[in-house]
Amino acid sequence: MRASHLRDLIPGATMKGPDSELNGVSLDSRKVKPGMAFVALKGTKTDGHNFIKDALINEASCIICNAGKCPPIDSVGIIEVMDTKESLPVILRSFYPHADKLRLIGITGTNGKTTTAYLIESIMRASGMVPGAIGTIETRFKGKAIPSSITTPGPAELFEILSEMKLSGVDACVMEVTSHALDQDRIDGLIFKHAVFMNLSQDHLDYHKDMEDYFKAKKKLFTDNLDGTALINTDDPYGKRLVEQVPSLMSFGFNERADIRPISINAGKDCISASISTPQGNISIESNLLGDVQVYNIMAAVGVALDLRIAMDEIKQGIEALSSIPGRMERIPNPQGLDIIVDFAHTPHALENAIKTARDITGGKVITVFGCGGDRDRGKRPLMGKIASMLSDLVVITSDNPRTEDPGVIIKDILSGIDNLEHVLVEQDRHEAIKKAIEVMSKDDCLLVAGKGHEKYQIVGQERIPFDDKTNVLECIEEVYKD
After folding, report:
1. 176 and 224 co-located in one domain
2. Is residue 441 domain-shared with residue 424, that is, in the same domain?
3. Domain that holds residue 42
4. 48-106 pLDDT tens trace
5. Sequence-distant (≥ 6) Cβ neighbours of residue 173 within 8 angstroms
6. Which residues pair with 287 in a beta bridge?
7. pLDDT, tens only, 418-463
8. The pTM is what?
């Protein structure tokens, strides 16, 4: 595409300087390559106009900027627009015209996004569809698996991935959509045919000013980016509010008014079985996922599948084919036969559900190892400490991803929510904390290692240090039982 042609596609755009052939677009000056257009976008923390010179050093062929914001440049073409943020969807569609032709399924909420996405993906695969997925763990399609650095990618990367999916034959993409992505307009220009609201509980209040602001960001998926069906958890107070603002919806929950609701649930030590009522009739499911809280994720996946017109037997087959999800109530097989679970729970509500599930599947004590992330919502730390101490027989408080905070200060914040420290241990070193828990657990106990789940690193300062809870669990078992 020529720069002059791109100018003609953007309403009100003007151009000066030499015309050139463009082969791509970037919002990050560090990722600019020769032949690319650099879009100077004002973000929440930085302004891309301050990095135009860096983009030129990396041989950008065109600069797209707000009118009057670009320094004098003669070497490349400059396209001036009223607002690069408003023009961005047009720019991205021009370079990636197939991205918005893909059927999109968006999932948002504090907890359950990843599990629900995996369930929907498995159902689509069982039905013969070719699914794609973008989420917290990785981007997956057509045999590719690309580890994620953030749950919802930036706009240019997102359009590029979706375009590649469509061109490779993907039928539909299920995407985890975060409140940050919605607030920062990362999905602008994309229209979803199905959008799922799971729940809303305290998290990210280091970013959002309060829960109302957090809800306002989540709501945008349904009010600004949806042309299709909303699937809403009407057991959740915020879900009940959302119902009043969405024209086309299907509800799920344990309440009798929900379109999709459980008739019966049997949560066992190794699996869960449920009979679920739907507008298309009842469906009985047996799943290897742990805990009755999984029924919410299953109901959401069933709702999307019905809206996709997938047959009941294929829905059942898809759900039952999914044996586990990385770092989501994931049992760690080990030579000693100890019942050890790794889970990503890093919010008060998620930690409560994880510990309750551990309690349901064990006949012995529940031991919980967890910490809280640094440079994140401090208000949830005492809440998580209180929950862990009340629901566990023993709590080992440790470090998570301290980032630039002092791990000791984070632990002190957690301890401030605990009234009785009699059954609480503190071990800042995460490996040693897991080891101490294994040393005191018996064969009948259940150990929950919470907070990091699938992550294979710890963020200390600005550095990512290799650390995998699952690997460390196995190493600690070997150390404890070496004799």
Report:
1. yes
2. yes
3. 3-95
4. 999 999 999 999 999 999 999 888 888 999 999 999 999 999 999 999 999 989 999 99
5. 102, 103, 104, 105, 131, 132, 133, 134, 141, 162, 165
6. 272
7. 999 999 999 999 999 999 999 999 999 999 999 999 999 999 999 9
8. 0.94
